[in-house]
Amino acid sequence: MQEVKDRAKQLLADGTVNRVVGWKAGEFSYDITPAVFTSAEEIDKDFIYNDFCAPNLSKYLIKESRKEGKLLVFLKPCDTYSFNQLLKEHRILRENVYVIGVPCTGKVDIDTVRAMGFQGITGMESDGENVTVHTLYGDKTVLKADTLGDKCKTCKSKKHVVYDELIGEDGEVNTDGARFELVEKLEKMTADERFEFWRGELSKCIRCNACRNVCPACSCENCVFDNPASGIQQRAAVNSFEENMFHLIRSFHVAGRCTDCGECTRVCPQNIPLHLINRKYIKDINEFYGDFQAGEDTETRAPLNAYTFDDCEPGIVYSRGGNE
Amino acid sequence: MMFRLPVNRLDDLFAAVSAVNSLYLPVDGNDGRASYKKWVEGTKLSSKLNTVRSAKDFFFPQTTNLCDFNVKDKEIEVIDIRADSEDFVVFGVRACDARSFTILDKVFLADPIDSYYATKREHGTIVTLACTRPEENCFCNVFGIDMTSPEGDAACWLTDEYLYINANTGKGTAFIDSIKALLEECSDEDVKAQQTTVKEIAGKLPFAGVSTDYFKKNTLLDIFNSEKWEKLSESCLACGTCTFVCPTCQCYDIKDFNTGHGIKRYRTWDSCMYADFTKMAAANSRNTQMQRFRQRFMHKLVYFPDNNNGEFGCVGCGRCLSRCPISMNIIKVIKAFEEE
Amino acid sequence: MHNETLIPKIGVVTDIRQDTPDVKTFRVVGTDGKKLFEHIPGQCAMVSMPGVGEGMFSITSSPTNTEFMEFSIKKCGVLTSWLHSMDVGQQITVRGPYGNGFPVETTFKGKDLLFIAGGIGLAPLRSVINYVRDKRENYGSVQIVYGSRSKDDLVDYQEILDEWMSCPDTEVNLTIDREQEGWDGHVGFIPNYVKELQPDTSKTVVMCGPPIMIKFTLAGLKELGFVDTNVFTTMELRMKCAIGKCGRCNIGNKYVCKDGPVFSFDQLSELPNEY
User: Do A197 and A162 share a structural domain?
Assistant: First the structure.
C-alpha cells in the first residue's frame, strides 16, 4: 500500500517522528516480521502493509515508546483496542507515539491456507476478494474470506478507537455477536465433555510462552511463571495440573483487560484455540456486568476492578450449572 | 537389499510391528496438523510432510524424571528411578529429523553419556520415510541431507502402489527380518525413479541455493561481534517456540518438584531465548534479548560446528520458519550474513 | 544400565566454620565417613539440597587432604542461604568432580607462582595453594596477594596466619579496601597493590575474584609485562548439568563447566566477552 509508505516517509522527513514501527516483508509474501524503520531507504526496501500483516504492533510500544524521540506506529482497528488498553495501564508513553490508523479487511492466515490442503506455498497475492496461492505444485485462487485466521473470521470491530490520523475510511463496530458462537457451543456441552475438550487442547501445550509473550495484556515486568519465589516457576508440562493452570491463571489475569485481539491463538505452534478461554470471560463479563469492551476507551473502569451493588453474587455459578 | 509391501497392506505391517513392540508414527489431528501417536488398530499414517513437534521427543522428552529424594530430618535418601526402556519403533521419520539424532548423539552420548537418552536410543528403532512433496520451508539440502535417501535404521519410500524398505543398520536388518513374512524382495528401480523426480523438485526449492559459507570463512569473534544481531533480534518475543519445535535444540533445565510425598528431580526443555536462562543470584551473562537471540544462532551456526568438525547444528527441517510468531528464523539470519 | 552422573551421592556435613560474616566453610564426607571422590585443584562439584536447589561450587580443600572435602560458600541466593542455615550432621547431595582444574602437574610444575585473589575468590585458589604447600618441592616460589573489603571479610584468615605465612619460600601480601581499627597491614585495592608489589614477570599468575577486580588487575599485570598465556583464572556462570550438555554456561564454544572453569587469558581473548 503505497499511501502508507509515503506517509511514513513524509513524517520521517519532516521530523515529526524519528522512526517507524511497521511490518517488514519476508522471504515469502506472508512471513511478515514487525520491524523498526529509520530511513526512507529502509521503508522503500522492506516496509509492507497488505492483507498478510497480522502481527499486532501495540505491545512493542511498551519498549519502543521509552526510547529517544517520537515514533510512528501503524495500527489496525483491532490493534487500537490493545493500544488503548495499554495506555489505560500506563504502559505506553502516549506523547512519544504518533498513531496512524490503517484499514483492515481481515488478514490471510498461512496456517488456515495450509489447512485447506495447500503444500509448498511460495507466495500469495490478495486483491481483497480473492487470494491467489502460488505453490511448488501449482497455483490456485481461493476466496479471501476462507483464508482468514481465527482472529479475523469473527472480527469484533473495523473501527479505530484511537489514532492521530487515519488512512482510508473508518469502519464500524461489529455487533452481530458471531465471535461468541464457539463459546456458546462449548457452554452447551456437559461439564465432562467440556473438560475433555480442554484437556485435549491443553495437553498439546509445549509451554513455549508464545501466547504469553505476544499478548498485549501480559505486560508484567516479571511474570509469576518466571519467578522462582512463586513456587510455580516450572515452564514445562510437568503434569497435567501445571499444564491446565498456566493457561487458566493467565486467562484470569487478563480477564477484563483482554481486548480479544486473537494473537494468542495466531501464534500458538500447537494450534490451541486459546482465544476461546478469553472470549468466554468476555462473554461472562458482558452478561454479569453489562456490555464491556476492553480497550474501547482509556477511562472506563473495568468491571472486575469496580464494585457496584448491582454486581452479581459469586453463587451465580450454581444457577448457571456449575458444580457445587 | 530392497523389499516391498503393497500399500493396501500397510495396516498389516503396522499391526505386525505393534504386536511385538510399541509403534509410533505421524498421525493427522483434527486440526490438520500431524503429531507422533502410538499406533492402534485404525490409526492412519499422516498425509502431512512432517509433524509440528520434532521426533526428538522420543529420546529427549520435554520432561524426564531424573531421580527422586526422600528427605527426613537431616537425612536424605536418593532413589534411582531409572527403568530399562521397552523396545519401540518410530516409523515415518523424515531425513531432517533422522539427521537430528546424530547431532543430539554428539551431545548426549559424549562423555559422560546421558543414560536417559542413551537407553532410549538403544531401545528405539528408527524407520525413516523419504520425502516426496517437500514444502517451501524445507532446506535440509543446505546441510547436505538427501531427503530422498534418509538415514535411520531402515529407510522407506512410499509410492502409489508400494512401500519400499531398505536396511541401513543392523537394527534395521533385524526390523526387516521381523516383518519379512509380509515383504517381498524387489529391485530398487521404482525407488530410483522416485528419487530422481523428487531431487528435481528439491533442487528448485526456494532455499536450495542458500550458502552457509559465511559461517565457515569468518571467525567466531567476527560473527559474534557483528552489528547485524541487533536488527535481526529487534522484534523477537523471547518465547521458546523455535527452541521447542527444533529437532536439534537440546538445552535443558533441572528442577526439583516437591510433590508433598517426596521430591522429584526432573529435567525439562529450556530455551536460551528466555531471560532467566543464564541468570544467577548476582549476575546474568546474557542480559539482553539480542544476546540471547545471538546465542541460539551462534550455537547452531558457529559454536556447534567449531566443536564438531564443521557440522552445523541445524538440519533444515523448516519448523522455526513456519512456527516463529514473528517469522524470524535461521534462514533470515543466514541470508543477512551472506548478503555481505 | 549406564552410570549416571546426574544422580548425586549423599554427603554428610561434619563441620561448619564461619569464615566471614557471609562466608562459611563446610566439611563434607560420604555416609561411610570417607571422602566422596578424588579431584584436581580447581575442580568443582554440584552441591544440592533436594527441593531447594543445586549449584556448582569449587572444592576448596586440597586433593592432598585424604579425609574430607571442603566448600567455602558465600551466602547470596536461595540455595546458599539454605546451606548457611544448616547444622552439622545435615546430609546434602554432591556430584562431581567437574571441570578441568588447574594444570598443577604440567604447566605449573617448577614455576614461581603468584596467586591473586579478591574476596570469596580465594576459595577456588585455596585448593591449589594447599596442594602446592603439600608438594612444595615441585614448585618454585609462592606469592599470595589477597584482599577483601575488610579484615572480617578475609576468608581463611586463621589458616593464612597460622600456616601459609610460615611456609618456606612463601610470601603473603594481604590488603583491605579501607582503613580499619586493629589492622596495620596494607590498605588499598588489589590492582594497585599488585602494581606496587612489582612481582617478577616470569611468574605464573593464578587469579580469581570479582569481574571488576579481574579486569583492572589484568590490565595492571600487562603493564608490568606479564603475558596472557601465563595468567590463569577460574570462571563462574550459571550451571545446571555441569557436564556441557544443558547449554547455559558457554562462553563462545567453550563450556565453563566442562572446558573450564580454569582458563588462561590467551584462551579467553579468543572468546566472546560474554561473562
Answer: no
